Amino acid sequence: MSVRCNLFLSIASGVFDQKGKLLGSASSPIQIWKEKDCIEQSSTDIWHAVCAAVKSACSLANVAPEDVAGLGFTATCSLVAVDADGSPVSVSWSGDTRRNIIVWMDHRAVNQAEQINASNSPVLQYCGGGVSPEMQAPKLLWVKENLQESWSMVCRWMDLSDWLSYRATGDDTRSLCTTVCKWTYLGHAHMEQWKESDSRDMEACGWDNVFWEEIGLGDLVEGNCAKIGRSVAFPGHPLGSGLTATAAKELGLLPGTPVGTPLIDAHAGGVGVMESIPDEELKTDLTDEDAICHRMVLVCGTSTCHMAVSKNKLFVPGVWGPFWSAMVPEFWLTEGGQSATGALLDYIIENHVAAPLLSNRASSQSISIYELLNKMLLSMSHEQNSPFLSALTQDIHVLPDFHGNRSPMADPKSKGVIYGLTLDTSEKHLALLYLATIQGIAYGTRHIVEHCNAHGHKIDTLLACGGLAKNSMYIQEHADIIGCPIILPRENEPVLLGAAVLGAVAGKKFPGVRDAMKALNAAGKVVNPSSDPRVKKYHDAKYQIFRSLYEQQLSHRTAMAQALQ
Hints:
38% of the residues lie in helices and 18% in strands. By secondary structure, the protein is an alpha+beta fold. The protein has a domain at 2-263: ATPase, nucleotide binding domain (Nucleotidyltransferase, domain 5, 2-Layer Sandwich), CATH 3.30.420. Strands 16-17-15-14-20-21-22 form a seven-stranded mixed sheet, sandwiched between helices. Helix 10 packs across helix 17, helix 14 packs across helix 15 (427-454) and helix 15 crosses helix 16. It is globular. GO terms for molecular function: D-ribulokinase activity.
């Protein structure tokens, strides 16, 4: 069984069988507060939603509490603050104690990230050369500098998925996934001592105390790092004695139900799809361990995460990692990303004057606005005798950095660009802008893939999951632009499946995460790139324009900074 915390809308829960088939799922809404760069949530609200979603999913799946073999949590890499009693501590300017979570995409700590990166600490080489304001160290520094009272009250700072697991089991052990990827924990400190099969809590020996002291957060490493994690474990390791009596009652499950050490949601998506390879796509000339290193998982939702693994550590400038055992145990993870993809498409559509009319039309046809736009683009391509659909955007180019560039430029100050605007406000104009934005996002992914391969990766196959992976236009444009086949999973909820893998491993149904992945992952449709050479030539040209838009922005930024000196 699995539980996932989405970014804005809801908690989702799913029940899977031992073949990885989804038996039932449910969701429950959650609150969010947004004020400029500050985005906040409530752990209390999220836990209540978790309980409601779990009960509903079990009911829909017709699964009794005693039939649940294990439970896994996954969530966004948001920062939770609680006091010694486990009560929420405000991280908000408002002082509202409900608001004790800084959401992952909150960008209040841009200046703090710059301060930390100026330290040139050795740990930063494992973050692509520098921390992002979306990571925890900058957020922690911001709270200390701006909310002194809250800072003094907090007993535990936790990633959201770790907090959910702690709330369920009472075990404060942290995941190698969360600590390594978002807290600068050096997971490879455990390489020589432990393997996943050892399955135990490990003393947290991977914190660099000097780093925390240098950036002004030395108080977090006092008491053997009690506030940020004294012990860590591989994903899927069983926590404590399973569900506490209190949590079990709230969730409608049995006390003692095994709970696996959690994953961040994108990483759960990776675990849920990375072994979803159809027989015809298997590389018979490669060993099993080599084959998985040729794949990249795109977890496409509000943002997109680009997950690739390797047996040896590969340093890719501007791309997070290498992170040891942060997703697939005993493999190094490289994690690229785009901070706004689904969120950007929503923004482009919702802020166009034609959006209300199209939304009403889509509703009357019982389809999404994206499906309607895709149909419109097909009609426009025929009407205009376009050589191929993508050519409709020859005069519109989009740099999708509306929420900064996470990878590979690692520039949170980068801005979005739309080139080719006119006075046109028609529905067809919105369709073209939508397509150009999809293409801009895909060029960004191509940039990440090429950059990773230039630094030692051998990525030639993509797997995609998440809400955007259900958009046929989005996936086909990515396949055409990157030039790789894209494999979609059989199940519609692979992030939930990844969390279920954790529960299955904790419940001893499989000896390890990789074994569970091979048993539970299953491939669906394979989307191949166009074989038309004109399509490749077109996208190669647009890709060069895409790259130039960022270079021009840097030049303009420098010119304006000099003008204001």
